[in-house]
Design brief:
Blueprint: E1 4-12, H1 18-26, E2 44-49, E3 53-59, H2 69-79, E4 87-93, H3 101-111, E5 117-122, H4 132-142, E6 147-150, H5 157-168, H6 187-202, E7 212-221, E8 226-235, H7 238-245, H8 250-267, E9 270-279, H9 287-292
Parallel strand pairs: 1-3, 1-4, 4-5, 5-6, 8-9
Antiparallel strand pairs: 2-3, 7-8
C-alpha cells in the first residue's frame, strides 16, 4: 500500500469538541480542553504517523462572530485553513435538533472551498440514537459531504473510525515531519496554553475570556535536571486580578500546581514554575499585546 500524507483541519462552532477529538486522534493531550466556548485561540498542529500514513491535524478556534480584535484574529485563523488542507473535518453536535444559524454560516463557507469535507456529528452519547437520523438527513440535504459519521470524541473506537475515512482522502506522498514528532508548537506555547486551561477550569465564567498568558522565561537547567519557567497572566480588570490571585494567593498557587503537573507530563522534565498576574485593560483590542502574546 502506498504511503499517504496530508493536512487535515478540524473546524466547527465553539465548544463542539474539536480539541477533545484532536487529543483522541493523536493519543496525547496537546490541545487544551474546557467546557467554556472559544478555548482554543491559536491553530495547533499535531502529527500522527504510522507505517502507512502521516496526518498533520490542525485544530482551529471555534468559528463565531468576532467581538474584538482577538476574536477577529481567531475567526481569520480558523477560516484561512479551509483551502490550504487536503481534508476538512467539520464537527457539529448531536444535541442540536436542527441546523442553527452558526452552522449554516459555516456550511456556506465550506461550499466555497474545493476541499473534501467529512461531517462528524459529535456527542452521540448524550442523545437517543433515533434523534440522530433526522439531523443526518438535514445535513445531507444542506451540503454534499464526503462522509457523515456520528461519533463520540470520548470513545476510543472513534479514533480508528475517523482516521480510516480521513486517510482514504489523502494524496500519496512522503512524510512532512520526522516520525517521532508530535507537534510543531514551541514548548513555551504549549506551557502558555496549559496555564490558560487551568484558569479556565478553576475560575468563573466571566474572567477567563479576558485572560492571556505569556511565558517570559523558559530556561533548561541540565545540571539541576529541570526547566525554569516564568509566566505573566494578563487580565483586563484589577478586580479580576484579585480573583486570579485569590485569598492569601491560594488560587494562583492552585493554578500553578495543576499547570506544573501537566507541563511535567508533557515535557518529560521537572519544572519550576513562577507566575505573576498583571492588569492590562482591554488587551484583547490592543495590537501590541496581541503580538506579544503570539496572536498576530
Amino acid at each position: 500500500m502506498a504511503f499517504r500524507s496530508g493536512f487535515v483541519t478540524i473546524i466547527g462552532r465553539p465548544n463542539v469538541g474539536k480539541s477533545t477529538l484532536l487529543n483522541l486522534l493523536t493519543g496525547e493531550k496537546i490541545a487544551i480542553i474546557s467546557n467554556k466556548p472559544q478555548t482554543t485561540r491559536n491553530t495547533i498542529r499535531t502529527i500522527v504517523t504510522t507505517e502507512d500514513y502521516q496526518v498533520v491535524f490542525i485544530d482551529t478556534p471555534g468559528i463565531h462572530r468576532p467581538k474584538n480584535k482577538l476574536g477577529d484574529y481567531m475567526h481569520k485563523s480558523a477560516v484561512s485553513t479551509l483551502d490550504d488542507v487536503d481534508v476538512i473535518l467539520y464537527i457539529v453536535e448531536a444535541t442540536d435538533k436542527t441546523i442553527g444559524q452558526g452552522d449554516m454560516r459555516i456550511i456556506e463557507l465550506l461550499k466555497k472551498s474545493e476541499t473534501p469535507v467529512i461531517l462528524l456529528i459529535n456527542k452521540i452519547d448524550l442523545v437517543d440514537k433515533r434523534n440522530i437520523l433526522p439531523l443526518i438527513d438535514e445535513y445531507s440535504k444542506a451540503m454534499n459531504f464526503e462522509h457523515i459519521i456520528p461519533i463520540s470524541a470520548l470513545d476510543a473506537e472513534t479514533k480508528e473510525l475517523v482516521l480510516d475515512e480521513t486517510v482514504k482522502l489523502l494524496p500519496e506522498g512522503p512524510a512532512f515531519f520526522p516520525e517521532d514528532m508530535l507537534t510543531d508548537q514551541q514548548e513555551r506555547v504549549l506551557v502558555q496554553e496549559i496555564i490558560r486551561e487551568k484558569i479556565l477550569h478553576l475560575i468563573s465564567d466571566e474572567i477567563p475570556h479576558g485572560v492571556g498568558v505569556e511565558v517570559i522565561l523558559f530556561k533548561e537547567k541540565p545540571e539541576k535536571e529541570l526547566i525554569e519557567i516564568h509566566a505573566n497572566i494578563y487580565c483586563e480588570k484589577e478586580s479580576h486580578k484579585g480573583i486570579i490571585i485569590g485569598k492569601n494567593g491560594d488560587m494562583l498557587k492552585k493554578i500553578g500546581t495543576y499547570a506544573r503537573q501537566d507541563a511535567e507530563k508533557l515535557l518529560g522534565s521537572k519544572i519550576f514554575l513562577k507566575l505573576w498576574v498583571k492588569t492590562r485593560e482591554d488587551w484583547r483590542n490592543s495590537d501590541y499585546v496581541l503580538r506579544e502574546l503570539g496572536y498576530k
